Amino acid sequence: MSAEQKLKDLGLELPAMVAPMANYVRFKKAGDLVFLSGQGPRNPDGSIPNGKVGKEFTTEQAYDFAKNTGLGLLAAMKEAAGSLDKVEVIKLLGMVNAVPEYGDQPKVINGCSDLLVAVLGENGRHARSAVGMGSLPGNMPVEIEVIIKVLP
Fold first, then answer.
1. From CA 12, how far away is CA 108, in angstroms rounded?
2. pTM (2 decimals)?
3. What is the pLDDT of residues 35-51, one digit of tens each?
4. What is the helix, strand, coil percentage profile of the chain, to 5?
5. Cβ–Cβ < 8 Å for 141, 49
């Protein structure tokens, strides 16, 4: 089953790509590797949620933000590779804007990791870091960047 069909079966759609917020590109190719710029979650109206996990947001809400961010990353992967069926996820860095005593960053970033595996299967499995941050741009709760390999 294609990755696009898996998305449909999950009742999910890839969002429209948005322009970068500063002086950078959505992704950069280096041979068969593609480095995707960090993305955060988007509300249905296109705005960015803001607040800290452990204060304004629960772990469960942040998991959903990471899943939402994963959809944006999948859209960028499709743009970079031409098809999600040609994508292998290599490395993911998940950053969580959280209160200092928060320690469940891996549970939050599972929102993105779970989505990538559900859509891409074995090609969605990846090495990963999930870290806490004192702040993120726009006070967004989650930012995730990914390195992919484009398959022949």
1. 19
2. 0.96
3. 999 999 999 888 999 99
4. 35, 25, 35
5. yes
